[in-house]
Amino acid sequence: MKEPSSFEKRELIVSQDGSSSLYLPGLDETYHNRRGALTESEFIFIEKGLKNKALESSGSAPIRVLEVGMGTGLNVLLSKRFADSTSKLVEMVTLEPYPLTPSEWEALNYGELLNMREEFNALHKASWEKAIELSPFFTITKLKTRLETLNGYQNAFDVIYMDAFAPSRQSEIWSKDNLTILFNSLRDGGILVTYCAQGQFKRDLKEVGFMTEHPSGPLGKKEMTIARKEA
What we know:
Strand order of the largest sheet: 6-7-5-4-8-9-11-10
Order of helices and strands: EEEHEHEHHHEEEHEHEE
Structural class: alpha/beta
CATH class: Alpha Beta
Strand content: 15-25%
CATH superfamily: Vaccinia Virus protein VP39
Number of helices: 7
CATH architecture: 3-Layer(aba) Sandwich
Shape: globular
CATH topology: Rossmann fold
């Protein structure tokens, strides 16, 4: 596991679609695709993840989402926007062992770009380790923990956003043991979505029990991954 010092001195950058992100010199890694942070998150996690699952769902039960890697909070903000705009109930749990400082998240421009500054501030100011209702349709639970120590969520989620840093930077997060934790945390029929389409990752998903597909990703990316736990 990378040391906390790797997450110090995060630098603000602006991706090619005008949305901001962060660069970590300690890992030589960005929090998002440099070609478009907002474009990437909207396509992979909302269009292929949350919206995809919402179209399959019937009834009034909440869609439960687990995010591995809250990072800047962009996926949380987009998920809230989806819930509020569609009147779909969404309950989200997001993991982040190394949260941003106020000065770091206040410098990000997602609130302005999406006309959601108050909502963006609210999600970052929300208390950790407990469920916080940010709107009648959206509840967030922020956990300052690693995936390896996640407990109490067997068969709990409909969608998983796997948004950790790449396997080349943090291989331990993508381990088969962690993928087993994710598989067991999904309900039957649930899906995992991620930008990653690395060969070993795809093989490990299948070995754990997922059925996988690899459609084209955003911004010219050849593949992304959708992994399903069969009903």
